[in-house]
Amino acid sequence: MKALAETPPARSAAPRVSGRRPLRLGPVSTVLRPRSLLVLLAGALALLVVFACDLALGDYPITPVGVLRTLFGGGDTGESLVIFQLRLPRSLTGLLVGAALGLAGAVTQAVVRNPLASPDLLGVTAGAGAAASAVIVTGGTLGGISGLAASVGLPVVALLGGLVTGVLVALLSYRNGVDSFRLVLVGIGMNAMMVNATLWLLTMGEVQDAGRAMVWLTGSLNARGWENVVPVALSLAVLVPVTLLGCRVLGALQFDDDTMRGLGVRVTTARAAMLLSAAVLASLATAAAGPIAFVALSTPQIALRLAGTARPPLVLSMLLGATLVVGADLIARTVFGSLALPVGVVTAVLGAPYLIYLLVHRYREVRT
What we know:
By secondary structure, the chain is mainly α. Helices cover 71% and strands 3% of the residues. It has a two-stranded antiparallel ribbon. A hairpin with a 2-residue loop joins strand 1 and strand 2 (28-32). The chain is globular. It starts with a helix and ends with a helix.
């Protein structure tokens, strides 16, 4: 009897949740979802195809074989110049910016639990735009800031502007914790303030400076080089793993505050950390390419519907965000002939109908 009492119960090999197969790798375990895995592979394939087309198509078309030959060290001088000096840094900038916006939007919507919440609507990108406009306007012919600060320091100022705006939104919406509904309302108000501040700066500046600011505010990948790729890539190499490690908290943040405290989650700290991470990602993307509209808003919801998960999947949102920005840049460069549109114009045209659909869908959900 004693031996039977000391014998530990045998572990069942069957999954604890019916219909879901566990995947264990040492101390790390997750649930294997075939649909999410297939959608993830399809998203990666779509990004690869769009990226290859962006390298191949343009005023100097190159065949897919020529693109591969050039990337692996072959190709003639003309193909090497077009690929490595013109198209590859531009495409990589779009890929990194889109991935950062997709991840920032997915984290924000998961924390706030609202599909309309994104760094665009919460004022983060508008704050970055206002700060950049201030530098462009005052650093031009008025001479308030030196020309070096107006060119080299512009991404840094935009990054700081987005971060300061995000922190202000969090502080103004804090009242014994961060309430998601209050956060959205404060964010919309802050977004309106930053947009009006930008318009005021444009009216106060010289015509040429206001024109340069308008081009930047539209969101463009034009003339992006390796000097734009390297800082964004290094920053994302640090930020993305940290954010993905924090995704375990996102599952608990779907419950109410009492349940989260029962699970041992520090509610305010977890929300603040994830929102700060999203604000940094969105500000970094805006500093690299200007405000590119609707990417952070639409791609997490598209990823959620494709994967069929309870909250926006982070990695798939990154892939779809990168695909959308690179594809929009391809359309902006090639579809309109000699007229090259800013990538932000294309994403705005594609995203506006989706925003209307989202508002109508949300209204019907509230009505029912």
